[in-house]
Amino acid sequence: MNTHLNTALTLAARRVPAMPLRAGKVPFGNCPACRDNACGGRPNMKTPGPCDCPQPCHAWAAATTDPDVITGPAWARVWKQAAAVAWHPGGIGLTVVDLDHAEAVAWAHRTLPATRTVPTTRGEHWIYLGAMGSANDVLDGVDIKSTMVYARWLGPGTGTMTSLPDAVQALIVKKPPPVRPVTAPVPAVGGECRHRTPAYLERGIAMAEQRITAATSSVHATVYRTFLAVLSTHGRCGCLTDSHAARLFAAAQTRGESPRHCVDAWSNARTALGM
C-alpha cells in the first residue's frame, strides 16, 4: 500500500483528521468545479471534512477521518502524487507551536512548559492540549497551527502532552485596530419610502452589521456586497442617514478594513446602483 495512504489511514483510525500534501508541503489545488472557490467552499470553513465534490479540496478543510473517503476513487489519483501527509490539529483539540529554527526552539525551552515534541527538518513541533486561533510569524520562526490550518505529520513525537499555556495564546492576542470615524455620502431623498416603521430600517442595518462582523474570509467582497444590499433596499428614500453608514463602516473596520476601502466600497456600490 502507498506509504502516505497508509499513514493517513492510521491517523484516521486514531480520529486524527488527515489529508494528502503535494510537493512543497502544500495541499492539492481545488478541482475544476471548486476552482477559486466557485462552489462557495465548505460552509463557513469551520470544520474539516471532504468537499462536497468530494475531491480533496479547500486545503485544511479536506482533512477527514473517514476511511471510505481516504481510500475512495476521488482520492486515488492524489495518493499517487502525494509527497507527505498533513493533519488538522484544531480538529482534535490540539495546538502545534511550529518552531522553525534553533533560536526559536531555544526560546520555547526558556518560555514554554514542556510538552510533546516532534523534530522537524529545521526545528521542532511542540504539541499542546487545547485548540486556539492560528497565526504565522507571531515571533521570529514561530507559527501557531491549530484551528483552520494544517500541519505536516512527522510522527507522534515524544514526551507527555500538557495543557495549552497562556503564553502561547497571548502570542496572537492583538488589540483591535482603532475605528476611525468616516462620513459616508448618503443618497439624497427622492425615492418611494418602504420603511413603514423605524424598526424595518434598524433591523436591516443590524443584520448588515452582523453579516460583516461574522465574515471569516473574503472580507472585502462581503463588505461590498453588504453595502450594495443596504443601499439597494434602504438607500433611495432618504431614511438612510450618516449614522447608519457610520455603523456599517465601523463594523467593516473591526474586520480589518481601512477607512479608505470603506469609502471606496460604498462609492462603488452606489455607482453600481446608479445613485
Structural summary, described in words:
The protein has helices spanning 3-13, 67-70, 73-81, 102-111, 166-169, 198-213, 219-234, 242-254, 259-272, and strands spanning 18-22, 26-27, 84-87, 94-99, 116-119, 124-129, 135-139, 142-145, 151-152, 162-163. The chain is of the alpha+beta class and 275 residues long. The strands form 2 sheets. Strands 4, 5, 6, 7, 8 and 10 form a 6-stranded mixed β-sheet that branches. Strand 1 and strand 2 (26-27) form a beta hairpin. It is globular. The N and C termini lie far apart (63 Å). The model has no long low-confidence stretch (mean pLDDT 83).
Count of helices? 9
Mean pLDDT: 83
Count all strands and give the number.
10
**Basic shape:** globular
Share in helix:
25-40%
Query: Main sheet?
Result: 6 strands, mixed
What string gives the helices and strands in order?
Answer: HEEHHEEHEEEEEEHHHHH
Instruction: Give the strand content.
Output: 5-15%
Secondary-structure class: alpha+beta
Q: Tell me the span between the first and last alpha carbons.
A: 63 Å
Alpha carbon gyration radius: 23 Å
